[in-house]
Design a protein that fits this description.
This protein has 3 helices and 3 strands, in the order βααββα. With about 70 residues, the protein is α+β, with helices and mostly antiparallel strands.
């Protein structure tokens, strides 16, 4: 008995850009010109959970602590 195929949570450009908080054009340009992970299913650009994780790590901006100015 063979194992069942893994069905992944693939998302398109609109859903992926929404989840990651980046623009659709930036996401498409990243894949087309800068080697970001993603693949085509027919004419649609699609992203797996692993693709989204890698893109999110590439764009992670560490939180900075702001120091409050004390009133004089």
């Amino acid at each position: 008995m063979s194992p069942e195929p893994l069905i992944e949570d693939f998302t398109d450009v609109a859903e992926t850009s929404s989840r990651l908080g980046i623009g659709k054009r930036r996401l498409r340009d990243g894949v087309n010109h800068f080697g970001w992970p993603g693949f085509r299913m027919g004419r649609r650009l699609m992203f797996s959970p692993e693709d989204r994780r890698i893109i999110a790590e590439m764009h992670r901006i560490p939180a900075s602590q702001r120091r409050r100015k004390l009133a004089a």
